[in-house]
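Query structure, 161 tokens:
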């Protein structure tokens, strides 16, 4: 089981929508196309390159990698954390659906996955410092290091997954 972080926009502006819809989303502007049409990262990078003409190659690679995580690497049963405002607490969910693209919804909710949110949240001050550092990665979607330690921490805190 993998542990993922999926941010809900700058300053967690979309966190209530994540919880209400029981989903996680990639809330970026643009990227208005179904990722299912791109069977590998290189084809997706080419599409992004055409859309974001002035973007640096590093940015294109980073966007493509994160979108591929949402589309392919996340699996049902994986844990996802979504930070609340100021990242002092995190909502905890279990991924229960495949990647979906919906063109008819507002831009920030087109790329998503179904999640079963747990009633518990975890506070940052309950985590060891090394784990807090790994949660601070400057990405929207990423795999959390220390997966086994995190699952053990949840058990120790009495948070069933």
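Result returned for the query:
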């Amino acid at each position: 089981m993998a542990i993922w972080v999926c941010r809900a926009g700058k300053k967690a502006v979309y966190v209530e929508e994540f919880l209400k819809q029981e989903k996680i989303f990639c809330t970026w502007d643009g990227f208005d196309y179904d990722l299912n049409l791109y069977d590998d990262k290189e084809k997706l990078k080419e599409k992004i390159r055409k859309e974001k003409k002035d973007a640096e190659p590093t940015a294109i690679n980073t966007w493509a990698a994160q979108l591929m995580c949402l589309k392919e690497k996340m699996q049902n049963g994986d844990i996802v954390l979504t930070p609340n405002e100021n990242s002092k607490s995190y909502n905890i969910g279990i991924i229960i659906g495949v990647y979906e693209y919906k063109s008819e919804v507002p831009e920030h909710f087109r790329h998503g996955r179904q999640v079963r949110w747990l009633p518990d949240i975890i506070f940052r001050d309950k985590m060891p410092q090394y784990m807090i550092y790994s949660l601070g990665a400057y990405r929207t979607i990423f795999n959390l290091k220390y997966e086994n330690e995190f699952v053990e921490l949840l058990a120790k805190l009495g948070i069933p997954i």
